[in-house]
Design goal:
elongated, 6-stranded mixed barrel
């Protein structure tokens, strides 16, 4: 059968069964459209995930303490009061692959602004947190070295907590009360979006102020921390930074190789 005869036969078959032909073509079109849509959504989701990770920093390492134990029962990982400011200083001093360290102590507190009253996470941080955690300010300024040394009662708000407390009003320059203590809002962070961390819901203050005003209720008696944010020199040096940090902490806390 010649090629032209094949074409004629195909056309006759299509025109002789119009409804079946239309339904077949419609099924093919819907199938192709569905595949294209799924692939497009997958690429968009992948791009959003990559953007979220990029906002955290590709060379960021988190160090948290282990879990306390009593009577053979283990507690929650990260709740042991074993990580200290001295550990942070040792890592910055002795780990060649590390460029910055951001110690963090935190607790839950009641935040009051005007008629708004919200329970929120409150974190004590150093000025290095802005760089290490890739914080971007939407307005105002971050905690400064002066604020840290002077134990200033100033705060920086995550985007969601700022909106919850002040709505459309300008938060910077306003006063809030944290567990009854008065603080001034000096800045608001740009939103990092949902899915990664709780930065948008956090209230930040100088770590020195945190220890002076809230350390007792957080179990941070003077220098114990809930986490360290560590910035490696580059993403290629993250693995070597992890090894250096582990070695330093093992030495400082008398943990032999092979022990957790």
């Amino acid at each position: 059968m010649k090629f032209w005869d094949c074409i004629i036969t195909a056309v006759r078959a299509l025109t002789g069964n119009k409804l079946r032909s239309i339904l077949t073509m419609l099924g093919i079109l819907i199938g192709v459209a569905a595949v294209i849509s799924v692939l497009s959504l997958g690429r968009a989701q992948s791009a959003r995930i990559e953007e979220a990770f990029a906002s955290l920093g590709s060379n960021l390492i988190y160090v948290i303490p282990g879990a306390p134990s009593a009577g053979g029962m283990g507690g929650t990982v990260g709740s042991a009061a074993t990580l200290t400011l001295q550990d942070a200083e040792a890592i910055l001093r002795d780990a060649p692959s590390v460029v910055a360290v951001s110690p963090v102590a935190q607790t839950t507190a009641q935040i009051v602004a005007g008629r708004e009253n919200i329970a929120s996470l409150v974190a004590g941080v150093t000025p290095e947190a802005e760089l290490v955690n890739n914080h971007v300010l939407a307005q105002g300024s971050f905690i400064s070295e002066y604020d840290y040394k002077a134990k200033s009662r100033v705060t920086v708000l995550g985007s969601e907590i700022a909106e919850s407390l002040f709505g459309q009003m300008e938060p910077t320059g306003q006063s809030i009360r944290i567990d009854g203590r008065k603080f001034e809002v000096i800045g608001v962070l740009l939103s990092k979006g949902t899915g990664f961390g709780t930065e948008d819901l956090m209230v930040y203050m100088p770590l020195s102020t945190f220890f002076a005003t809230m350390g007792a209720q957080a179990g941070s008696q003077g220098n114990s921390l809930q986490a360290l944010g560590v910035q490696a020199r580059s993403k290629d040096e993250v693995e070597s930074a992890e090894q250096e940090i582990a070695a330093i902490l093992r030495d400082r806390h008398n943990i032999r190789e092979g022990e957790e």
